[in-house]
Amino acid sequence: MTEKISLAKETKQILQENGIILNKNLGQNYLIDDFKRKKIIEYAKLTKEDTVLEIGPGIGTLTIELAKKAGKVIAIEQDTAIFNILKKRLEKEKIDNVNLINGDAVKVDFPEFNKIVSNLPYQISSPISFKFLKHDFDLAILMYQKEFADRMNGKVGTKQYSRLSAMLYFKANIKFLTKVSPESFIPSPKVDSSVVELKPKENQIADDDFKIYSKVVKALFQHRNKKARNALIDSRHIIGFKDKKELKSILNNLEDENPRIKELLLERTINLSPESIMELSILLKEHIN
Ligand code: SAH
After folding, report:
1. Residue 120 CA, closest ligand 1 atom number
2. How far is the C-alpha of 82 from the C-alpha of 74, rounded, in Å?
3. Which of 184, 200, 246, 264 has a CA-to-CA distance to 50 between 20 and 30 Å?
4. Ligand 1: centre distance to CA 199 (Å)
5. Residues 174-190: pLDDT tens digits?
6. Is the Cβ–Cβ distance between 174 and 153 less than 8 Å?
């Protein structure tokens, strides 16, 4: 019978019956577009072998469909009132392969999983994505605010090229899948959304090198339009320097020794590819802490 009610109507009904007013500060924009829901589930190519992690299940719009297709679902919801609604809903529908956790997904330890499917709470996009990438998994299908998704995949020299793009570059392959407009949610957010596929890269950079790279990236992107040399000098505290003169003299010496360093330091941040930033990081390695 419930098949006949539209997802929008069903969602409004559940929220109303439980006296819930959605909280924008918790990124509560609930999906009411059945077509987009189907697409998201399809992209995940689920089998009963899969254990899916879902962050922010809300009232279960994706969760219930995921549970039908996957072997197991782990769903982490922070809002206790919403968590209780979903718990009852799963019991009522006799769905018993969902491990529902009430907590902050940024802080909770993740149980084992091999796929991630989530319409994410947008305010935690950055920390949760980096947390995902500390784990080994096959595939993630994730909905983000469109601007964020664009920056994740930003190409060198473009407006979207950012600290986020450079940080993700060595960690994951990111593919844009589909745009989702504000009317597909209640309440409607002010921004467009994008669904993206994220797959961890096979060959990961050594931890030590990535640590240095992260610092150099952070320092450089505080001054995206400056020449790398000036960006590093201005953000010297990030790479462990207090004294401007000291860093300048180190850079001068390195430039004299190695023309490639000189070339890299003369480029503006936005024109330095992740590979070039990595090259620069390794060349500066012994001086950075
Ligand atoms: N997946 C649902 C809901 C998306 S809204 C749907 O598509 O309709 C995002 C959900 O994440 C909300 O239910 C919100 O309460 C929850 N949430 C917000 N911050 C969270 C956090 N830090 N950890 C876990 N859940 C969070």
Report:
1. 9
2. 16
3. 184
4. 22
5. 999 999 999 999 999 99
6. yes
